[in-house]
Hints:
Elements lengths: L24 E10 L2 E11 L4 E5 L6 H8 L7 E6 L2 E3 L4 H6 L2 E4 L11 H5 L6 E2 L2 E2 L1 H15 L14 H14 L4 E5 L7 H16 L3 E5 L3 H7 L2 E6 L2 E7 L5 H9 L3 H4 L26
Parallel strand pairs: 3-10, 3-11, 6-9, 9-10
Antiparallel strand pairs: 1-2, 1-4, 4-5, 7-8, 11-12
Amino acid sequence: MSATPETRHDARPPRPGAATTPEPVTLEHVFKSYGGTQVLHGITVEFAPGSVHGLVGENGAGKSTLMKILTGVERPNAGRILVGGREISVKSPADALHHQLSIISQELATVPARTVLENVFLGAWSSRGGLLRQGQDRRRFTELCERVGFQLDPDRQVGTLTIAEQQQVEILRAVSRGSRLIVMDEPTAVLTTSETQALLALIRRLAADGVIVILVSHFLEEVLAVCDTVTVLRDGRHILTEPAEQHTPDSLVAAMAGRSLELLFPELPELAEDAPVVLEARGLSRGQAV
Length: 290
């Protein structure tokens, strides 16, 4: 008796920059190991369109690995990626871009020697008959900046920009390609307070446009301030996915660590006034240093 071949439902990607229908993106039963070390244990999580989804966990929890799988940088040992319930094939970053899945990593992927305009439309310039249509790209650039509220000089060399401005270039690139989902990995780690507030406001505007924004961050107060939903990973396992409004920084820390704050940071007993001296030092010196 012959086995029935498996039917594959692969979502047909729209052209880069095209508008997409808001649909949920789901990671389903994702496993990943390196050698004999299992780093992801069957994680399932759904990301809703038009929402900001926080992804938190301690170092080594599996956050970056999960996002690399979602955006084609890594391949899972098992599991599926679904868009609107349809399985898609994401075997490389190019596949991810075809399906409007983008990532902005801590290590920004800009070309410092090229202009802002060239970086925004990198690999997706307007052309006809093999000739670039720079006037059209400049109009597209102006429309993009107006949409997201940026004020960038298209002719400025990217290597002369601040980190926050280079981040804006990457965001414009993702938006220009019609991204349905944008992963931002620790985006505020090197930003000032005012730059951070501006970025969080932009994240909310992107979500209002129907984009899924996944915020990977150790700054829990920022996560709770901007996110609709939060997912906690611990040791490569899915611990919870719940509305952000149900949590506080303390409750997230407890979920990330697997034990209460009282156990993590126990109260120290008060020292008695007549407690014996355990260590005493006098006259210590080390050249001019001490």
